[in-house]
Amino acid sequence: MTRLRAQDLTLGYDDRAVVSGLDVDILDGKVTAIVGANACGKSTLLRGLARLLLPRAGAVHLDGTALADLRTLDIAKVLGLLPQTPVAPDGITVADLVSRGRYPHQGWFRRWTDDDQDAVARALDATGTTDLVDRPIRELSGGQRQRVWVAMALAQDTDLLLLDEPTTYLDINHQVELLRLLRRLNTDADKTIVVVMHDLNLACRFCDHVIAMADGAIVAEGAPGDVVTAELVAKVFGMACVVVPDPVAGTPMVVPA
Amino acid sequence: MPTTTFSAPSPTVGAQAALRATRRRRTRRAAVVTTALAAVAAALFVVTMMVGSFGLTAVEVVVSVLHLREDPAVDFIVRDLRLPTATTALAVGLALGASGTIFQQLLRNPLASPDFVGVTSGAGLAAVSGIVFLQAGGLAVSGFALGGALLAALLMYVLAWRDGVSGYRFILIGIGVLIFFDGLTGYVLSRAQLFEARQAMHWLTGSVGQAGPEELRLLLGALVLLLPTALLLQRQLRALELGDDAARALGNRTELSRAALLATAVVLVALAVAAAGPIIFVALVAGPVADRLLGPAAGGIPAAALVGAALLLTADLVAVHLLASPLPTGVVTGAVGAPYLLWLLATTNRRGAGG
């Protein structure tokens, strides 16, 4: 069963096709990592799945309906996306920013409701940002800031959550902290999560499913233990390596040869 | 389509309380600030009508404006002589303040007010061309100004278009358009006869005393229609501020929202310019001042509009009554605004938020 599915999807910018003819099923209730070298099309695929990029050909289906046939506001109630570089308005506080995640649930004239209040409070709880509500975003550390952005996406209260390289600019400690948070959201709130990331070891450690991409095509996909091999790493990243079991979790760990 | 399917845990009491407290503080501050600004603007509106060669009391002014009692002498001074100018200052200030803050938030840059991205210059060029070449006057000049502003905005929108309009690009192109238009305006003036050139120069300086009843009525009608529109669109603005990707992920139709907001802001500024000439700096200053009062990133359009009104009424008071010889309002706003612009340029660059 899959709620989000791409069929024969071709995406690109200007005249250049970045991914073409992709078929992807996003597994419900799982954490999926899309990995690959720079410019392999993984962010493009994510943007396509979230209707930020319109398909050149093919379609993305949400609950059986093509995204193009759905109202964008209705999509936003089910499918959330945290972009790679969202913009924080100058001086904005945590409470204000997280509250803006309620946009798709508010009408032209509707005021702030108990549902909004609950969803934002839950998002603050889940991300551990309650103590920061009055702080301006720019005063926060990188790790805190990223958790606040995740809180905004959570306040949107969607079953599916896509994140575009949320760990890229974080140090290792905060990367792990964020991935643990995503893991928790998956187990506690049953969210389907798709995350684009660079670090193959962390992807194997924290995700149920890995989609490996190279040159705009999917090279392999499956459970990390099944697909992440030395051959795959050579194909995707062009690097010789040895794959050993992670000493803590037993998931595949890539060690450069 | 099923919405949320998982059973959500209840939020903790701590998060609920923290959120409620911070939201309450914000709402209260916005209410207090906006009410206070409205009171200040209203007071200045009355004061403007009290002073002059024949001094009146506040009570006399209010009684006459509200038609509570008839007194031919006072009524003539208030209703016929002073009310139109005061109303123009109020309306132009509201329009410039609202328009300026919309531009600045939309383009995510405090420098991006309509007088600095060429919209006001477009209006000026068209109006001056009308005055010089077609001997236009009155409402016709307003028509030219409106057309010029809309064309300038459209031109920039088309030039700056690239997978959506990015703020930085828009401002660079706006400045280019501004310089181009001002150059053309200079050329048109150099071709003019002395009489028309004087008229055009007077219009270009900007003065709230120059609006005719038709221009004023047009502006008031637009305010009644467009200020509520701007308030409704504020929600879109709050989403757009987070960047196009984030706004679209939230379900905002970004190009549509942006076009609606730009159109609203452009018509407001165009009609203000049409009524009073290109009065500079009010649109630039109003939004940031309102945000200072409301707290960061509040972006309250009503507050910015009221700050604009208060600024323009003050500038008019200073220009007409406090100086040895009366000056056009635009000279006063320019004199006050220029140092602010320098400060803004200096601090914006230091913070690295210029883009």
Automatic annotation (TrEMBL), chain A:
SMART domains: AAA (SM00382). One of its GO terms (molecular function) is ATP binding. InterPro entries: AAA+_ATPase, ABC_transporter-like_ATP-bd, ABC_transporter-like_CS, P-loop_NTPase, Siderophore_ABC-ATPase. It is found in: Cell membrane. Residues 4-240 form the ABC transporter domain. The keyword Cell membrane applies. Keywords: ATP-binding, Cell membrane, Ion transport, Iron, Iron transport, Membrane, Nucleotide-binding, Transport. This is ABC transporter ATP-binding protein.
UniProtKB/TrEMBL annotation, chain B:
The keyword Cell membrane applies. The keyword Chloroplast does not apply. The chain crosses the membrane at residues 30-63, 83-103, 115-134, 140-160, 167-189, 216-233, 260-287, 293-315, 327-346. It is found in: Cell membrane. It is a multi-pass membrane protein. Its main location: membrane. Keywords: Cell membrane, Membrane, Transmembrane, Transmembrane helix, Transport. It holds the Pfam family FecCD. Belongs to the binding-protein-dependent transport system permease family. FecCD subfamily. This is Iron chelate uptake ABC transporter family permease subunit. The lineage of its organism: Bacteria, Bacillati, Actinomycetota, Actinomycetes, Pseudonocardiales.
